[in-house]
Amino acid sequence: MRSQRRHSMERADKEVSVAAMKEYYKQFDPRSYLRYNYIPPRADFTRTDSIVPWKLSCLHRAFQEGDVHGRTLIDIGSGPTIYQLLSACEHFSNIIMTDFLEVNRQEIRRWLHGEPDTFDWTAFLQHACELEGKGCSWPEKAKRLRTAIHDVIPIDVHSPNPLHPYSLPELADCLVSSFCLEAVSPDRTSFQKALTNLGTLLKPNGHFLMIGALDESYYQVADGVHIPVVPVDQEFVSATLKSCGYEICTFQCYTLPQDMKVGVDDVAGIFFVKAKKK
Ligand SMILES: C[S@@+](CC[C@H](N)C(=O)[O-])C[C@H]1O[C@@H](n2cnc3c(N)ncnc32)[C@H](O)[C@@H]1O
Ligand SMILES: O=[N+]([O-])c1ccc2c(c1)CN[C@@H](CO)C2
């Protein structure tokens, strides 16, 4: 009840439609977004209760189970971040990153090309190496990730053909998506439709690894700029995945400690779900 009331209050002043969401994203600033979410306390590798270490451990475990493998993996709504692929690159040789905004695709390409003045992912790379425990160094991990990422292309999850005009040579064996569907959909119906659209990219028996925000109604995309998020909970995400033809393999939730609420959103928790397309 509380989240619905806040949800209606927070979003009351914003028009919510697919077109409106696309307009809001014109204000997205990659550097600000990284600063809001990917530095301590949210990315503090000395703390076991920090959000990013929790996300990386979920992804590490999902791949360690050994049933997620193949050649092609597509990362949906990559944004300006690469952390979500640190485990995936050990298991997939053809990774395609995607985002709606050229500014984000450009940020990724600059990192791929080792250009100066890009976001420093060293601590994330080091943490992934520690999780894997194979004595890999972070420069080796960075090299492996750069080698596995073969493309950075546009995507619109609200399109029935999300990658148009890019044509996939083969369907993906795995989809990864972090903080995308609930952050780009005006309502729960659009979330479900977008999930259906993404299903056209994935082979039967392929896996979908999704990270998302729980009970969030807005987030900051640039200084002074907040955009609406459709609040979702575990029940809705699970039911929507099942209605779209997935079985749930794992569903884990993280509740934000008070000091992880840094004023850039009203997220209450984070979910990680590993699902398999029937
Ligand atoms: C909250 S960010 C998530 C970024 C990153 N995956 C992460 O884990 O932090 C949401 C991303 O969705 C992208 N986006 C916005 N509209 C989209 C759409 N219609 N289809 C796909 N991605 C979209 C934005 O450009 C942004 O990079
Ligand atoms: O703590 N985090 O690692 C983190 C990273 C990204 C995002 C959030 C939290 C919460 N808001 C979403 C947008 O819906 C984006």
Automatic annotation (TrEMBL):
Annotated S-adenosyl-L-methionine binding sites: 33, 38, 77-78, 83, 99, 104, 156-157
InterPro entries assigned to the protein according to its UniProt record, in alphabetical order: NNMT/PNMT/TEMT_CS, NNMT_TEMT_trans, SAM-dep_methyltransferase, SAM-dependent_MTases_sf
Entry annotated with the keyword RNA-binding: no
Xref: Pfam families: NNMT_PNMT_TEMT
A Gene Ontology BP annotation from the UniProt entry: methylation
EC primary class: transferase
Cytoplasm keyword on record: no
Record Gene3D superfamilies: Vaccinia Virus protein VP39
EC code: 2.1.1.28
Database matches in SUPFAM superfamilies: S-adenosyl-L-methionine-dependent methyltransferases
Keywords of the record: Catecholamine biosynthesis, Methyltransferase, S-adenosyl-L-methionine, Transferase
PROSITE patterns, per the entry: NNMT_PNMT_TEMT, SAM_MT_NNMT_PNMT_TEMT
GO cellular component, one term: cytosol
GO molecular function, one term: phenylethanolamine N-methyltransferase activity
Pathway membership: Catecholamine biosynthesis; (R)-adrenaline biosynthesis; (R)-adrenaline from (R)-noradrenaline: step 1/1
Catalytic activity of the protein: (R)-noradrenaline + S-adenosyl-L-methionine = (R)-adrenaline + S-adenosyl-L-homocysteine + H(+); phenylethanolamine + S-adenosyl-L-methionine = N-methylphenylethanolamine + S-adenosyl-L-homocysteine + H(+); (R)-normetanephrine + S-adenosyl-L-methionine = (R)-metanephrine + S-adenosyl-L-homocysteine + H(+); (R)-octopamine + S-adenosyl-L-methionine = (R)-synephrine + S-adenosyl-L-homocysteine + H(+)
NCBIfam families listed in its UniProt record: GntF_guanitoxin (NF041360)
The family this protein is said to belong to: Belongs to the class I-like SAM-binding methyltransferase superfamily. NNMT/PNMT/TEMT family.
Name of the molecule in the record: Phenylethanolamine N-methyltransferase
Protein source organism: Erpetoichthys calabaricus
